[in-house]
Amino acid sequence: MSGGAREVLAVRYGNRTTTRAESFLNHHLYGEPDTEIQMDYYFWVVRDGARTTLVDTGFAPAAGDRRRRAWWSTPADALPTVGIDPASVDTIVVTHAHWDHTGNLHQFPQAQIIISQAEYDFWTSPMARRGQFVTHAEADEIAYLQRADVEGRLTLIKGQHTLDGGTELIEVGGHTPGQVIVSVPTATDTVVLASDAVHFYEEVERDRPFAIVADVPAMYRAYDLLAALAAQPGTSLVAGHDPVVRTRFAPHPANADVTDLTAAATKLP
Ligand SMILES: [Zn+2]
To answer: Which residues keep their CB under 5 angstroms from ion ligand 1?
Structure first.
């Protein structure tokens, strides 16, 4: 498969209003006013002709409702709006096991699921049930990953891992113990999906750690790595929850909630 056929999409399926103080770790340290900000919820799609890889699967409708998040689609509903058959999804990368990234896995019962060993080990350990962590995962979704492991549908990776077609998974930790980022080469460009290694561009651009963090030095090191990757020619950085993604890249012609991360010509200057 040539890189020319590859599409990389961000699909916005929900949002919420939050505040800077809730979003940035120890916001009071910076001496700046607290204001409301918008947070978007996305999952990502890498399409290679007839094959589709999902990067995360968003949150489940019931979990979103319980946590009072606005949402309007799930992967199985959103993919056909841009001409992708959900049955073409053969691989799902789970960048980390937070609830807003592991919902809806059951929509793709044939897919292989890839997650870091560190992430899987953490969320299946007693530490994950302590108060600072348990609120960020859904127990039935962690159990789903365990069943997928028993069924031979789970691939556990360490450090760096390259998928067919050259997409690289890089474990960075920080936000969660085994958070991974995903670097996707295309014909003309490289698209780096930070997922929640960077929720908002401001984290990496102003060195502001996010409020939910398992390991602060690892989070800072992830910012350093992502800044270095983004400084390479032809490389785009895609933050995991930032509405600015939808202004830095162009909307998909068929669905305004889908952003085309691929075509360099569509980017704003
Ligand atoms: Zn998230």
So the answer is: 100, 196
